[in-house]
Specification:
Keywords: Signal, Transport. The chain is an alpha+beta fold. The protein has 16 helices and 24 strands.
């Protein structure tokens, strides 16, 4: 099995309605409970990287895609896949064959109908070797997908077929109990071939070079700018359920800036950090949650020979006091990591114990400076270790980087230089393995440990640091294939894999990221998903 990254799988994709948000909207805008002006002003801490579902790799890009595009299903407020472009689904062949009937009233923003062929084209394009999609491996559960992605079979061998305009069949290699939840994720959405052919490599690099079939259209985005708008899509099949006329988004890397904008009533939302949280914890606009996202310190063994030594990697990890980082530095509700997989990613099917509790190891996230110094001496002797830490230009990243720098420089002969770059640039550098140390974020798309663990498989497109372990690969391969229908056996192997990763310190987990926020209390109907693409604005509205 050659999986390549992490993002999608299982049973409990818990989607919660954001605190302070109401049920789905009904009635007429401007009357009853709706304000006359349905316009939401929103902030994001980083720039938008892509509007091409085959090229997106970050949470923000997928959030925009989820709100501007539509697939077979959308997750409702309970996290259950509900029909969107699909009107019915028939599952046969022991769970390996899916037959979908599609609605006939869906259109693209260029006026063309959305058809079954758009799904076939989209999946084939994502898997085509020339597309070089980092997320292509998510489709490997579809018949012949891996061979197609590796150029061993033609695109038309892929197990997805259109039967006329409004009937679609998908053939899987094995039963996948969570497959409907995967289909609600933007990677599995359709694409309009006419638009992709028209814009070529520029498709999805600006709002003008993208077409839409979802609740909103992306506008006023030039591909690099720090603002954009999601405007109600007049050609969306279910536009009657969309209450907002537009969502104006501004990038504010600093929470100080976004907080000031919120207090000046120039935005309806802001992330909070440190003292801001303490000052606003009793506000009617305060929202606190803990998504299944985490921040880790990645080590590039390909760039720094010393990092190939497990004792050196362990020494760096043991030198970091994660509790001090979250309690004294970040002060935003983030939680010190117990391991690589964060809380909220599943429970033992027999005992009910949480994965991050069961899989924790003695030293994987511990703090012991004395032992760190001993291990560094064992692995490196008295040789100097000069490292560059590449991070994004957001407040949290810079605060974390300075703490990590200070912590590692307590080790003899270790020097860390911080290199700060814009978020989109950092993603590109990480994808290309162009770093020595880097702060990497990972947000799950489904609540299952595999969604994190397969990032560090040997052939993962996201494993750019070079850590490899054959036993780790074997355990994940067996868990996903051999034991796919044996939950307890599968669980045991995932726990074993996590312990291998931590005992060998293939990465250095730091904390599970909290997202405390001020959200204007009259903003209702946001659907928030802590285990995947976080925000769905389809049913959002501004109350009177």
């Amino acid at each position: 099995m050659q999986r390549k990254g992490t993002i999608l799988t299982i049973a409990a994709l818990s989607v919660l309605t954001l605190a302070g948000c109401g049920s789905q909207a009904s009635g007429q805008t401007g009357s009853g409970k709706y304000a006359a002006k349905q316009e939401l002003n929103w902030t994001e801490p980083s720039e938008l990287a892509s509007s091409d579902l085959a090229q997106a790799t970050d949470t923000l890009s997928f959030t925009v895609l989820q709100n501007t595009q539509e697939g077979l299903y959308r997750l409702n407020s309970k996290g259950t896949p509900a029909n969107a472009l699909a009107t019915s689904t028939k599952i046969t062949n022991g769970g390996k064959t899916y037959t979908f009937k599609l609605r006939k009233d869906a259109k693209w923003s260029n006026g063309q109908p959305v058809t079954a062929k758009d799904f076939v084209y989209s999946w084939q394009r994502t898997l085509a070797p020339k597309t070089a999609s980092q997320d292509a491996f998510y489709l490997y559960q579809v018949e012949n997908a891996e061979a197609v992605n590796q150029g061993k079979k033609p695109l038309n061998a892929l197990g997805i077929k259109a039967h006329g305009d409004y009937k679609l069949t998908v053939q899987l290699t094995k039963p996948v109990l969570y497959f409907k939840k995967l289909l609600a994720w933007p990677l599995f959405y359709p694409l309009n071939q006419k638009a992709v052919d028209q814009y070529g490599k520029k498709y999805g690099t600006s709002s003008a070079t993208t077409v839409y079939n979802g609740p909103f259209r992306l506008s006023k985005w030039n591909g690099t700018g720090k603002s954009w708008t999601l405007a109600k899509n007049a050609t969306y099949w279910d536009k009657k359920s969309v209450r907002l006329d537009k969502i104006n988004v501004a990038v504010t890397e600093s929470t100080t800036t976004s907080y000031n904008l919120f207090n000046a009533r120039k935005t309806d939302e802001t992330l909070l950090s440190g003292q801001q949280i303490k000052n606003n914890s009793n506000s009617q606009d305060f929202v606190k949650r803990l998504p299944t996202g985490s921040q880790r310190l990645d080590l590039n063994e390909k760039k720094v020979a010393a990092l190939k030594n497990a004792d050196v990697r362990k020494a760096l990890s043991l030198a970091i006091d994660r509790h001090q980082l979250v309690n004294d530095v970040l002060q935003d509700g983030s939680v010190a990591a117990k391991g690589y997989v964060p809380a909220g990613m599943g429970n033992n099917p027999k005992t009910g114990e949480a994965f991050n509790q069961e899989a924790t190891t003695a030293t994987g996230t511990s703090y012991d400076l004395k032992q760190a110094k001993a291990l560094l001496a064992k692995g490196l002797g008295k040789k100097p270790l000069d490292l560059t830490l590449s991070v994004s230009d957001t407040d949290t990243s810079k605060q974390t980087a300075e703490f990590v720098q200070s912590s590692l420089e307590k080790l003899p002969n270790v020097k860390v230089t911080i290199k700060t770059v814009p978020y989109v640039q950092l993603i590109n550098q990480q994808n290309n393995g162009n770093y020595e140390l880097t702060l990497a974020n990972w947000q799950s798309v489904f609540a299952d440990p595999i969604n994190f663990l397969d990032v560090f498989e040997s052939n993962s497109s996201y494993n750019t640091g070079g850590w490899k372990n054959s036993q780790y690969d074997k355990l994940l391969d067996e868990a996903e294939n051999q034991d796919g229908n044996q939950p307890s056996k599968r669980w045991t192997k995932l726990v074993q894999a996590e312990k291998i990763l931590m005992n060998d310190q293939g990465t250095i987990p730091l904390f599970q990221t909290a997202k405390s926020q001020l959200l204007r209390h009259n903003v209702k109907g946001i659907i928030y998903n802590p285990a995947g693409v976080p925000y769905d604005f389809k049913t959002t509205y501004i109350a009177k």
